[in-house]
Amino acid sequence: MALTYNTLIVLAGVSLLGACAGLVGSFAVLRRRALVGDALAHAALPGLCLAFLIVGERNLPAMLAGALATGVLGVAVISGLRHGTRVKEDAAIGIVLSVFYGAGIVLTSWIQNLATHGSKAGLTTYILGQTAGITRQDVWLIGGLSALCVLAIVLMAKEFKVVAFDPGFAGVQGWPAFRLDLLLMCLIALTVVIGLPMVGVVLIAALLIIPAAAARFWTDRLEVLLVLSAAFGLVIGAVGVIPSAYVPTLPGGPPIVLVGAGVFLASVLFAPRRGAIARSIANRRFRRTVAEQTALRVLYESIEPRLPDAPAVSIAEIQNRRAWDERDVSKLFGRLERSGLVAREGAASWSLTAAGLARAAAVTRAYRLWEVFLVEHAETAGNYADLDVESLEIRLPRDLIDSLEAKLKGA
Amino acid sequence: MPAWLYSFLTEYRIELWTVAVAVVSAAACAILGCFLVLRRMSLMGDAISHSVLAGVAGAYLLTGQLSAGPMLAGAVAVGLLTAALTQTLHRFGRVPEDSSMGVVFTSLFALGVVVVSGVNVHLDTDCVLFGKLEFVAWHTVPAFGTYVPFAVVSLLPAFGLTLAFVLFLWKELKIASFDPLLATAMGVSAGLIHYLLMSMVALVTVASLEAVGAIVVVAMLIVPAAAAHLLTDRLGWMVGLAVVIGVVSAVAGWYLARWLNTSAAGMMAVVAGGQFTAAVFLAPRHGLVSRWVANARLALRIACEDIVGIIYRREERQAAGEDATVRPAASTLADCLAARGDGPIARLAVLLLKRRELLLVAPGGQVALTDRGRRLGRSLVRSHRLWEAYLDQNFDLPADHLHEPAERIEHFIGPELQEQLAEALRSPERDPHGSTIPPSSSEPTAARSG
Predict the structure, then answer these.
(1) Which three-class secondary structure state does DSSP give residue B74?
(2) What is the ipTM of this complex?
(3) Contact between chains at A99 and B230 (C-beta distance less than 8 A)
(4) CB of A198 closer than 8 Å to CB of A13
């Protein structure tokens, strides 16, 4: 594909749209509005058709206005059903989405069957989108919208943040939570409607959800999330537009969404901390630490009656206390031996080294303190309990630990 | 077979097949939709109906043809995958549930569209997006020794399985729908039921795909069930009504669409939406109209009782010989209305009070209670002051905070509660403000129903 002027226009339009959707979509995802965006997009279809019927041709501004009108009506119906009847939000979203869409295809095929309009009107391209038809005017429109979104978000970063995470708190603090929410909803609606011709009513919601949901794996900070999500959107748009340029029969939306799915999958797998791989490594490490602590404690408890001597403990004795098989024991104690905490005594015994004894004493103490804490303060323990026994001193105040220690000695 | 029946069947063959496909698909969807709506998983139905397209495409790629068996199997596999992926992302990836659903189904749907438009599957994208009910009768395959529409071959097993699923697991579905935790505690695995339900949804949506398309099928799943849920509180009735609403949508949608020369699948969704709208307004207990009526009746009753209370208190003060200049006497109707807040409901209340012979209005506007009106007033004031006394005794409220809650609750304290309050307070003489609590009358709250 040579980089002709038209190609550049298309590329610029779709990437800008992706960035804008990524930005606005972050709030949609945080506010649990992702599927309201989907309903809005589907509800826009009858508006597109009505505008076409009234204006009589494919006039972009008129059709966007029509789409916006019925889309917003759909969102209002969802909110009305949720607050005014016993219909739950999920059903309300499903009803609006499918019935408005049904009305849309009734109108679409009615228009197609009308002889007066001659041409097929090309309304069906709005359903799965078409990227080839993007004009300079569209790029300016999307660029303007993106600028508007960035401006609104920069100006009201603090307000949007509190509304996104805790609207109830925002209201109590005296922020106009409802109006801010409405403004966010408007930005979402505008983005959806402007993206309709390119990505289509069925899949435009994915462009809102995917960049933000992917970016969420990489960060816990809203500012970073916004930037990252916009960047993901930009890349998804730019890469996703290429296949439909090569294959003319391919609609615009699906390839873009598939690229998005790839970005999302990569995030799920490779993101640090929250990603699947990072988490399975962390899990493994954690299990290993717990096993080592348990091994030290088992040794300590076996020799406890004979302290301060530290005689060797036979593997049979260890197995008596824990259901570990031979291989577990040799692997586990081999690791401890490499850290210099235990030493092998003959063929079938292990003993604690001096460093190991100190460590085992500390681990056992912390473990027993936790036990006492869980028994004594069962009602609050759930908030503090951590399976890592050594976190006790970090988590609990000093005087509480002293009193627990006194109880332990008394027992 | 009688000759007339045979000629009828052959003459209207296409039409009969088409309507049959629409009806069976609508009925199967409506049955399953009830459980989706009750379990608040309507959107899972939406998600699965989109992603089954990937299953169809996969089955086509593997077998090289479009036949019912592999198609249904592929759909079930992808349906289960959608449900499982959504749950995994939500639980282990901590993606919000709606977003995880959104990511999964849009990706699978996009994959399906790309495959279907890439390879030349008989099912084109138009069919998936719009449904082609008009053409299902023409797409026939050999079966039962004759040619039947392909949609029937895939819908009949799906419908049969749905019926069997619901009939055999009725009890389990019921308990898992209303209280999944209890179900699990009783040994019915709510998780297993969930995944079975998701498989059935996938099966039915893919069988309906050719007739109504991937998106309108959501309307057939959710809308009849949600409408039925507004009409009844019994699960059996709900399923039955949902099927009726679904079938009406199918038949009426088909004929309306033929009359207007437009999409039948879309019209089915619109008719279903129309019935849902009617249910939202007109449902007997949960409908908006009946709630408005109930609210208006309550407002009217409260207005009646407020007016009677105002006049009763005035008469009480007069009887005690209080100077009329201390507080306004409220001896005319205009005074009463001003004290209560004038408005259409208050005016209507006055008319009602006169008709029920609780209130007398002299030509000069002077008002007086009849004996029955006085009994009602006494009961109300008794409720009011008992409640004040009760609040004063049991809650640490300042004296000027007692009147308002009592003013609100006096309308809802029946004779039984009055006696309980009096007993709890050991039949007090006076309320915290020093006013006498009137004794209970022998015939209390005459206008309770007003």
Answers:
(1) helix
(2) 0.85
(3) no
(4) yes
